[in-house]
């Protein structure tokens, strides 16, 4: 299994709108080949921070999704006016070892 963790921190008090956008997202990733699961979480000690954890069968499936037009379309619900803390957006990749 391949895991991608994307994190970012909201700079302008739009966390509630961003979280609502994730709740109401179009769900385009669910149909991507190799997709297993998506979790959107926020640390209780910093509710302006958002973490997206996606699980894939393999790295290539993630890369194909990330380059796809559906990936870009999946971001269409981002609330207008959203500002992020500079350099807070990060993506890290993980190898799943065991449960």
Automatic annotation (TrEMBL):
GO terms for molecular function: monooxygenase activity. Keywords: Monooxygenase, Oxidoreductase. PROSITE patterns: ABM. InterPro entries: ABM_dom, Dimeric_a/b-barrel, Heme-degrading_MO. Coiled coil: none annotated. It comes from the Bacteria. Residues 2-93 form the ABM domain. This is Antibiotic biosynthesis monooxygenase.
